[in-house]
Amino acid sequence: MGRGGTTRTCLLAALVTGLVVTGCGASGSGHAAGGRTDAASGERTGSAPPSPRTASDEELCAELVGYWSRKALEGDTYGDYQSMGLSDGQYDILRAAVAAARPVEERQGTRAAHELMDRRIREGCVDRYRDGGPTGGPWQ
Question: What is the DSSP letter of 30?
Fold first, then answer.
């Protein structure tokens, strides 16, 4: 198996292991969410851990488009927008951000280009999801 296959296999094994380890707490075992069980008394102590934070559509858009924009600026992309997990509208945001960042990168460096892309992507994603998201299909 090639190097890429080995890396994918290791990542998959780590993911599966992480899922198994984090899914072990059973009700009453003292390891489930909601505090701990005191070993001596058997009583529940502590408070429940905070609920996981959910990201807004704008945040998810900015994260995903930001990731692929950096790859595109480096020239390290593959496939089309769907293989990147982007909608057509998100891909439009990516293309505009990268196009604006290329001349900035040449003149001011990668850091300035990334800062510009981050701003453009955030603005694009906020605008895109301002009214609750696009309608007309999942890839719009």
Answer: S
